[in-house]
Amino acid sequence: AKLTGKNQFVYFESQFDENMQRFHALFSALSTAEKNNEFHMVYQPQYNQQGQIVSAEALLRWDHPKLGAISPAEFIPLAENKNKMKDIDLWVMRNVIQQIKHWRAQGMSTVRVFMNISGQSLSDVNFVNLLSTQLSDAGVPYENVGIEITEYALISENDAMINQMKWLQRRGIEIALDDFGTGYSSLSYLTKFPLDYIKIDKYFIAHAPIKEQDAAITKAIFALSESLGMQVICEGVETQTHLEFVRDQNRQSLIQGYLFSRPVSVHDFEALLAREVA
Ligand code: C2E
Ligand code: CA
Ligand code: CA
Ligand code: CA
Predict the structure, then answer these.
(1) Which contacts of 120-124 are long-range, i.e. CB under 8 A and separated by 24 or more positions?
(2) Quick one: which of 70, 176, 194, 211 is 20 to 30 A from 38 by CA?
């Protein structure tokens, strides 16, 4: 501030105030979002390379009457920071499991739905109990759900957490490691934790076709997952070029991205599934 002069300083100060104000406004609005029915889920299909939907990712949306649609990229880190993720995860689990229950009752063909689960839930000793109770109360089999966890969630690794994950996996839940390669990667996670899928982050999908070093890293992730017996889900496949790069690496990996479908409402997701069967 000293070097940039008084006006500059005032600018930064007001910018800072604005950010703080938004932070507080969002945080206080977030605490009543659930009660006021401001959350809903959207679903993004995950495809095999024959173009069939094999699973889906459930993604949270928050629409506030005054603040508008707030991206989870903004409010999830906020909730994480304030140690509020358990409530959100619980809402997501309830909502998704009730949705699957509904689909089953309607006799619709259902696919496995992956939910994003935070480290705060995963490291809670009650997590497995919560999830399995909800599944059995709703009569939804473990095979209908999967969980996506980030590397960041695995940082606080401990035996209890690993055992909870193994317990779920033995009963039929699949586990995906999200955003692989972007943050706190430790290769030891890949063997320590029971993982069925590695999700390659959209950064790599976007950059591999145009940047040699990113192509090298992406190819190494494919090779690594293959030798460890894990499947790959490629996120952020937006173009034919992205798809071709993925196809050249591995014919078994799953595709998620705007090229095939954006995250869509329950209604539109049902239509996508119905089209599959027809
Ligand atoms: P994520 O788990 O990595 O989710 C993938 C994000 O990529 C989603 O953003 C999705 O809409 C977006 N995406 C999908 N296909 C494409 C594509 O082809 N191109 C591009 N550019 N983007 C694509 P979204 O829904 O805004 O979510 C952002 C992040 O917020 C998620 O990243 C996840 O970390 C978090 N999040 C979202 N829903 C939940 C939730 O229910 N629980 C938790 N704990 N986190 C959530
Ligand atoms: Ca995810
Ligand atoms: Ca991801
Ligand atoms: Ca991501």
Answers:
(1) 120/80, 120/83, 120/85, 120/86, 120/89, 121/85, 121/86, 121/89, 121/90, 122/149, 122/153, 122/161, 122/164, 122/165, 123/153, 123/156, 123/158, 123/160, 123/161, 124/86
(2) 176
Give me the interface pTM, i.e. the ipTM.
0.97
Quick one: pLDDT band at residue 17, thresholds 50, 70, 90?
confident
206 lines ligand 1 (CB under 6 A): no
Helices (H), the chain: 5-33, 72-81, 85-105, 119-122, 127-138, 159-170, 189-192, 202-207, 212-227, 240-249, 266-277
Asked whether 151 and 183 are in contact (CB, 8 A), the reply is: yes
The model's pTM is 0.93
**Does residue 278 line the site of ligand 1, with CB under 6 A?**
no
| Contact (CB, 8 A) for 71 and 263 | no
Q: Atom 23, ligand 1: which residue's CA is nearest?
A: 236
Question: What are the tens digits of pLDDT across the range 142-152?
Answer: 999 999 998 87
Counting ligand 1 atoms within 8 A of each CB, the residue from 46, 55, 84, 116 with the most, and so the one to mutate, is 116
